[in-house]
Amino acid sequence: MQSSNLSSIEALLDSHNRTSEIILTEAIQCIGEALQVDRGFKAVRDPPRQRCRIAFVWRHDESVPDIAFEME
């Protein structure tokens, strides 16, 4: 990973006045841009119930479809 991308992620993690929701959203964006992908997401899994919910989504732009469903 390039040093500028790593610096961005380190700056996010050093944020003391941001909520975890803001940090996760911005981290997904930084990682998506660093990897040059069109979307990224963070899923919350519940293995005993065999469920997964998409908690955070980042899209490069509005032309990329959103993920608006639960995976079972």
TrEMBL record:
- Note the superkingdom of the native organism: Eukaryota
What protein am I looking at? Uncharacterized protein
Task: Give the species this sequence originates from.
Answer: Adineta steineri
